[in-house]
């Protein structure tokens, strides 16, 4: 496990996936937050049900761990339809998609995760399938090649992407509805945690829930993961007996998250290494992504897609055309003094 995994928004193991499965909300009413998206989906599903037709195709866009897979499952569940799950990387040829589409039962919901990673040839086949529930299958090669049309059962496509900007316009345009999922605020994360604690039958203090909520980067997946670590800590270290054995208080949260090196802002060791090098070695920047990555011994891709978005979101880092720059808030948070300035930002 790398240093960053505890607050990585990607699932870390099979055990975590099983744990997540148990905590997944099954209905829109149970799904916490994303109020606007929930309202929009509700309307779309009710309208389809009143007209007795398959709901429009839905694109779910947003960072990992915010509930895209959960919403796809809810769409199927709430509209009383079965769900087929696939992903962009599994569809590397048009034939893979043809096999999948032609095996759908009428009305089925097809979920394609990471849809931006599907093969180009499959994307083109999907345009027609989404629009007319039909595909053209090419038979033969060269001058003798012919295309055979194949009718499909009507279906609802739910596509999920972390990179909506990478989807070609013709594909994006064929979704009847696009939902942009936002990071959750602390109050919503507390509700996610409260619900998880109830389902896991954990005894957790209010203050402990609020503390975890403030450290999970606006992401329910990370919230549930931190709760799991804190639960383990409390189980091993609390001296309570009977009903209160394993009860989670603020002390357990502080101790467990210190053990896992997650600070009060949700920053972990890698985040802090990036910021400290930027501040101390490069005097706050600007410095290029690759130089920064080499300096902390990490892949540029990890720094760019996992570390930076959060540092930017909480206002510690900005990306400029000349490179990465630390903000005044970063100087304050790390208590580092800029060369030629006092700790309070005044010029010497
Ligand atoms: N709004 C929510 N309310 C309660 N729990 C949630 C919510 N959103 C997500 N979760 C929890 O977070 C976990 C991760 O959610 P999910 O797998 O749906 O994220 P995702 O956006 O599909 O992530 P990825 O893109 O990495 O697959 C789920 O198991 C679920 O328990």
From TrEMBL:
GO cellular component, one term: Holliday junction resolvase complex
Residues annotated as domain AAA+ ATPase: 54-185
Subcellular location: Cytoplasm
Catalytic reaction equation(s): ATP + H2O = ADP + phosphate + H(+)
Keyword Coiled coil attached: no
SUPFAM superfamilies noted in UniProt: P-loop containing nucleoside triphosphate hydrolases, Winged helix' DNA-binding domain
Entry binding sites for ATP: 23-24, 65, 68-70, 131-133, 174, 184, 221
Annotated GO biological process: DNA recombination; DNA repair
Cited function: The RuvA-RuvB-RuvC complex processes Holliday junction (HJ) DNA during genetic recombination and DNA repair, while the RuvA-RuvB complex plays an important role in the rescue of blocked DNA replication forks via replication fork reversal (RFR). RuvA specifically binds to HJ cruciform DNA, conferring on it an open structure. The RuvB hexamer acts as an ATP-dependent pump, pulling dsDNA into and through the RuvAB complex. RuvB forms 2 homohexamers on either side of HJ DNA bound by 1 or 2 RuvA tetramers; 4 subunits per hexamer contact DNA at a time.
UniProt family annotation: Belongs to the RuvB family.
Comment text on domains: Has 3 domains, the large (RuvB-L) and small ATPase (RuvB-S) domains and the C-terminal head (RuvB-H) domain. The head domain binds DNA, while the ATPase domains jointly bind ATP, ADP or are empty depending on the state of the subunit in the translocation cycle. During a single DNA translocation step the structure of each domain remains the same, but their relative positions change.
Protein name per its UniProtKB record: Holliday junction branch migration complex subunit RuvB
Species, as recorded: Diaminobutyricimonas aerilata
